[in-house]
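Good morning C.,

I know you're traveling, so I'll keep this short. The sequence:
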Amino acid sequence: MKKLLAMILACAMALPMAACGNNASSIPANASGTSGEQGGAKDPVTVTVWHLKPEDTEETSEHQRLLRWAEKFNAENTDNITVEVAGAKSPEVILTTIASGSTPDIFMNYWNNAATWSDKGALYDLTEFVNSDEEWNKGDFVDACWGLCTYNDKIFSVPYSMSTTFMVYRPDLLAENGWDHFPKDTDELLQCAIDCTKLDDKGNIVQMGLVPDYYWLDTILWPAAFGGTWVDGDKPDFVNERQLAAYEFQRAIFDEFGYEKVRRFVDSFGAGGTSEDPLFKDKVAMRWLPDSGLAAMVENGKGIDWAMAPMPYPADGKGAQMLTCGVWEVNARTKNAEATWKVLASLTGEENMKYMAEGEHNNGNFMPRRSALNHLIDNLDVGDYTKQNAKTLLNDNLTHFPMLSYIGEYLNIISAEMTEAMMGNVSVEDAAKNIQEQVEAVIK
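The tokens, ready to paste straight into the viewer:
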């Protein structure tokens, strides 16, 4: 992505970037010549909004909800602004289009693209708008979300969805192995994972208490739960004791049962979130689950004794739930910043976020405004597990990977080196040192 970005923007953004503005005040309200206010009259403005989701026709889909929001906005606004919505736009398509100087004005993006895109002058600095629009109410957002929207002390994104990860487990399988409660800390979790693992007479795994890297070796989940950090100030820090403890925890499970045996066992799993999910087929007693998979688990887990719980922390309580966000951003070349902000403020306002919280098939959607999360909890018929997760997102004990210009390189290095550590080819401590050295070399 970084190479693609550099190539596209170097060719297409050769014009001086002063007109794009890294400060809201640098673009006059009438910069495009197509909008302005003369003697009370406002010229017509069209603001384009692109999103990543499919253009589904199902009426509760995100696309259809956005179309209805736009229709309502167009009918009610008195500023001669027209909103046009289009979906199924990948980040690559969006980047290529904005680099050419064309639409969209507002677009959905992955939060981790912001640092690189803003460095290349592709994103509009929204800091002044976000902090000065009192009616929009920045304080209604869950505080931790702004860490995923801020780079070099400037706000380039507005959070629009939020997600965490929790544990799902089988109380009956835990009870069969002497556990009458879900583990209250990571020490208990490790012991429970070992106690709930069963082998056949040939030593093959037939049930595991926990596979720490199923679905994948997550580079944020376990360090977050253990209170680990990835930077110290503005410098990478992967050798802190909390980070090491997170990977030693995972390594201990592989060491107990053998990495290759675990891999062969995982190969027997059915698709997650379906009726063949390993939790439903008695193959695992516990596993972690992104909340995006919650609706599918509820649908396919009917009649099965399963439950959910927040990620356990170390015994000292110094851990956190991991957080990720979907965001909206603004093209640095938007032709009328004031009009674009009015649209974005409506799109991410309290009223629309409560509406979007209903979710696809009315199963609920986790929006980053407290008012929307409380609306989901208090007013929507979305099921107890969904409400439970919304309460977790409201507790403010959330952490995330830092906003860095070298996010992609850092995460790739972690994945490569810690895979070697999980396989037993290198110690966790040596893998962490290797990561530290490689990331330091990247930023020199």
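Safe travels,
E.
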